[in-house]
Design a protein that fits this description.
The complex is a heterodimer. Chain A is built from one helix and twelve strands; from the N terminus they run H-E-E-E-E-E-E-E-E-E-E-E-E. By secondary structure, chain A is mostly beta strands. Classes of the chains: A mainly beta, B alpha+beta.
Chain lengths: 211, 111
């Protein structure tokens, strides 16, 4: 495998949860989140004992690198700004577990820490994530930002649609900046996102189920 | 005399159904009074996850019969069970558990 693809794979693997959905639910709520972008897939199943904390399993598979991370992820809602027509959030994320770098059965300790912020109205969405990770042989810092617009305003229970653009930065990657236009569909407890990363020529498919 | 008593009883019996029709509220089968309706103004309601959180948490309270969320107005309507009550402090606590901020509560809102 060419080094540039190796670097790109490692950098993408470092990005666990690129601003797709809020990682903390209501008190007693469960959430399942899955993300797939062609380079890696991840699953995060978490429980919120309070409205400001969640903890759960996080598994990430990097398909190019044959690398798997399996561990626990804790999410803390540090601050929420509830306004009449908007909501803003600041999150802290921490993960620790085992990394199997080449799926050869030899695992290493891996960990990551991240900060995420988002702000949205019923028409506009912006978010930013930064994450530092140490996955054994790979240490990286990655960023992701999103801008979204809702073409119409839907009521609770109706289909909500968002047009979004996600920009990611992986300084170590061969293509350090990638752009992914995507559509978000949101109805009741289910959120689904579909997009296409232009530089990598890969499809993105994410979903979140909250219950 | 016996004839007079019989006529009076017959007259009373014949007018009883008419009286019942004229004033149905006197029926002993009246429905119980409906529960109180609260209309809460809540900040931070921008998406379906928000509405779902409010419905799950507020709807779990034993006093609550039904919860409606209006995202456009930022309002939560809480229908209480007949004979039950939910004070402002308790409602504020439930809204906070869901992750949102209670601004005000209007009580005895007409359906």
């Amino acid at each position: 495998m060419p080094p540039r693809y190796l670097a790109a794979g490692l950098a993408l693997a470092a990005l666990a949860a690129p601003a797709s959905a809020r990682p903390v639910s209501y008190e007693g709520g469960w959430t399942l989140m899955q993300e797939n972008n062609g380079m890696y897939s991840s699953v995060h199943a978490h429980y919120s004992p309070t409205a400001t904390d969640s903890i759960g399993l996080y598994v990430e598979q990097n398909w190019d690198m044959d690398q798997t991370f399996t561990g626990l992820q804790y999410n803390r809602l540090v601050r929420r700004w509830n306004a009449p027509d908007s909501q803003g959030n600041l999150y802290f994320k921490l993960g620790a577990g085992a990394v199997d770098p080449f799926e050869d059965g030899e695992t290493e300790l891996g960990s990551f820490a991240g900060v995420a912020a988002d702000w949205e109205t019923r028409r506009v969405f912006v978010s930013y994530d930064v994450r530092a990770s140490d996955f054994g042989a790979d240490e990286s810092l990655s960023h992701a930002a999103r801008l979204g617009v809702a073409p119409y305003v839907a009521e609770f229970g109706e289909l909500h649609t968002w047009a979004m653009v996600q920009v990611e930065n992986h300084p170590e990657a061969d293509k350090p900046v990638t752009v992914t236009p995507l559509l978000r569909f949101f109805k009741g407890p289910l959120l689904v996102e579909a997009g296409y990363t232009l530089e990598e020529e890969e499809f993105l498919l994410n979903w979140t189920w909250r219950f | 005399m016996k004839l007079l008593k019989t006529l009076a009883l017959a007259a009373a019996l014949s007018t009883a159904p008419l009286a019942a029709l004229a004033s149905p509220e006197t029926s002993t089968m009246a429905e119980p009074a409906p529960g109180e309706i609260l209309m809460a103004k809540v900040n931070g309601l921008v998406c379906d996850f928000c509405a779902q959180s409010i419905r799950k948490i507020v709807g779990k309270d034993e006093a609550v019969q039904k919860v409606y969320v209006d995202l456009s107005k930022g309002q939560v309507r809480v229908d209480l069970k007949p004979g039950k009550s939910l004070d402002d402090a308790a409602l504020e606590k439930l809204i906070r558990k869901a992750g949102y901020s209670l601004v005000s509560v209007d009580r005895n809102v007409a359906k």
